[in-house]
């Protein structure tokens, strides 16, 4: 199997163009997401009311809750 890196330095297999780390067709992005960019893209889709469901560390929950308030999204924290 031939492997290559794209312009962003992400690893893909030549045959299927799948990410080597996850095996998914979408690429892996290292680092923290740009939440403003993510939330703006969701707003621009104009698909109606948006609710964010989250289960994970409290620090990220605070960040997402703040962004949801800023963009008018509902936020639901799940605990398992």
Describe the structure.
The chain is of the alpha+beta class. It has 2 domains: 1-31, no CATH class; 33-80. It is 31% helix and 18% strand. The strands form 2 sheets. A two-stranded antiparallel sheet has the order 1-2. A hairpin with a 5-residue loop joins strand 1 and strand 2.
Which properties best describe this structure?
80 residues; alpha+beta; 2 domains; two-stranded antiparallel ribbon; two-stranded parallel sheet; 4 strands; 18% strand; globular; oxidoreductase; RBOH/FRE; superoxide-generating NAD(P)H oxidase activity; NADPH oxidase 5; FNR_nucleotide-bd
Topology:
Layout: E1 3-5, E2 11-13, H1 35-45, E3 51-54, H2 58-71, E4 74-77
Parallel strand pairs: 3-4
Antiparallel strand pairs: 1-2
Helix pairs in contact: 1-2
DSSP helical segment count = 2
The main sheet orders its strands as 1-2
Number of strands: 4
Uncertain segments are: none
Compose a concise summary of this entry.
The chain has 80 residues and is α+β, with helices and mostly antiparallel strands. Helix content is 31%, strand content 18%. It folds into 2 domains: 1-31, no CATH class; 33-80.
